[in-house]
């Protein structure tokens, strides 16, 4: 009998969220199906693509955690309104690159800069929304297009293509 592999494994997808409507709560799910040029089935943005990069959004857990430490609060990963929370992946490096999540092939289109919604959701009495937006600039995630329909789940690695 072989010994269990105790090598630490870097998990790229830590959490997945969908929301059925623009102001509806983010619901955590274990897996999603993404469709070429439409995004995540069941999400508020599904099929509403008007410009590149509107299929789904990703954000780094490390950036949200650092931001929460700066505010002195506990992080709530769902409040970012991003679909996928990653760990151990520098998303800014994926602008203009193709990568794979599960059986889906995606392309990083542009940074998903913070907006007034994110500012409002993370605002505190001594940390107003505009300060949040400034603080999260270039740290708030990645906008992605789906190039190949597929499924991915929590725990899947993000694999870049050559």
Notes on the protein architecture:
- The protein is an alpha+beta fold and 162 residues long.
- The chain has one domain: Beta Barrel (M1 Pyruvate Kinase, Domain 3), CATH 2.40.33.20.
- Helix content is 16%, strand content 31%.
- It has helices at residues 61-71, 116-122, 129-136; strands spanning 13-18, 27-29, 31-35, 39-40, 56-60, 84-86, 98-101, 104-111, 142-148, 150-153, 158-160.
- It has an eight-stranded mixed beta sheet with strand order 2-1-6-5-9-8-7-11. The chain has a three-stranded antiparallel beta sheet with strand order 4-3-10, with no helix packed on it.
- Strand 5, helix 1 and strand 6 (84-86) form a beta-alpha-beta unit.
- Helix 2 packs across helix 3.
- It is globular, with a radius of gyration of 16 Å.
- The model is unreliable at 1-9 (pLDDT under 50).
CATH architectural arrangement: Beta Barrel
Q: Give the N-to-C terminal Cα separation.
A: 37 Å
- How much of the sequence lies in strands comes to 25-35%
> What's the β-strand tally?
11
- Give the class from helix and strand content and strand pairing: alpha+beta
- How many domains would you count in the coordinates? 1
Helical stretch count? 3
Low-confidence stretches: 1-9
Question: Percent helix among the residues?
Answer: 10-25%
Series of H and E elements = EEEEEHEEEHHEEE
CATH-assigned fold name = M1 Pyruvate Kinase, Domain 3
CATH homologous superfamily label:
PK beta-barrel domain-like
Q: Numbering strands along the chain, what is their spatial order in the largest sheet? A: 2-1-6-5-9-8-7-11
CATH class division: Mainly Beta
**Biggest beta sheet attributes:** 8 strands, mixed
By oligomeric state, this entry counts as: single chain
**Overall 3D geometry?**
globular
Rg over CA atoms, rounded to whole Å, is 16 Å
